[in-house]
Amino acid sequence: MKETSSRLANNRPEQADQTKHKQQTVNKDWDKLLGQAQKRKEKIINLYDLQRFREMFNDLAQWIMAMLSRLQDHKAHEANDPIEAEALLEQHQEKVKEIEANSTPFNNFEKFGQKLIEHNHYATPEIQNKLEDMKAKRQKLMDEEKKQKKFLEQVLDYLNFKKECEQAENWMGKREQFLETPHEDDDNVETMIKRHEDLGKAIDNQEQKIATIANFGDQLIKQDNYNMDPIRNKIDELLKRWKELKNKLMDKKSQLGESQSLQQFSRDADEIELLINEKLQTALDESAYRDPTNIESKNQKHQAFEAELRANEAKIRQMLDDGKKLIEKQKCSGNEDAVKQRLNAVT
């Protein structure tokens, strides 16, 4: 253009000024056209960048919504034992790894948005809002992850507590059955007492276990476990049942003690009645006195007979005292009349 204008000016000097003016006009219009084209190019680029930014935002927002749904979709309320709860926690941890592994797209989105703002993009307010919105959405995802993890851990804690309670209740149930089973009068009381003593030792050993379970439940309540009311009720039930078990142990001990005393009284009474009957037969044997021979020998036997009676007098009195005490202290297990009959038979 410039060469053509110079050539025309040289060929037609009289039109040189006009030619120069036209050249300047054309150059000015061309520069204006180039400027408009550049602006149009920049606008198209800005529109493309904005569209790309919006698509990145939408993709990340949809991913967050889907991940939020997955974090909440665990059905932990339906878990029945600790093994199921542990499996749910493992699944949750896999989701956490997926969230952490997807950090790059979020970082790229942040950098891209900041770059557009630094270049004074015409949609800077929208871009800034979307950056802040995405930050809030991502924080919501992090908060939900922590919330669900805490909930799953509480589910596991509750199911462990529940399992410990069930085991303790089963243990108590077996011991309650023994304590509640009535023993027959002809049972070997010494054997029953030995079993009772063994049970007492077992209960003493179990005491710390019950306390540990109760303390575990108290800790869950302090941690605001989602099931704190059932936990509190279960602690109360467990401790109440434990107290009742120990009371039954004491009652059983008293019953066995009564049975032992009754059996001992019965054996002593049998022995004394047998002794008395034997001595009565000897005392009532008149043939020993009608025969005048061997008087001295018979006198010695009689003295020995009297000595034996005196020797057993303390034993007889002790048996009588034991029987009276059984009646007075109401330790006859409902056999007061039988004890009275034995006492009357001896006296």
Account of the 3D structure:
The N and C termini lie far apart (156 Å). The protein is rod-shaped, with a radius of gyration of 52 Å. It has 10 helices and no strands. It folds into 2 domains: 19-147, Methane Monooxygenase Hydroxylase, Chain G, domain 1; 182-346, Methane Monooxygenase Hydroxylase, Chain G, domain 1. The mean pLDDT is 81. It has helices spanning 2-11, 16-72, 82-101, 103-118, 124-180, 189-222, 228-283, 287-290, 295-328, 336-346. By secondary structure, the protein is mostly helical.
What's the quick description here?
This protein has ten helices and no strands.
Q: Based on helices, strands and strand pairing, what is the structural class? A: mainly alpha
CATH second-level architecture of the largest domain? Up-down Bundle
Radius of gyration: 52 Å
SSE order, one letter for each helix or strand: HHHHHHHHHH
The CATH topology of the largest domain comes to Methane Monooxygenase Hydroxylase, Chain G, domain 1
Q: Share of helix among residues? A: over 70%
Helix count, DSSP H or I runs of 4 or more residues: 10
Low-confidence stretches: none
What is the average of the pLDDT values? 81
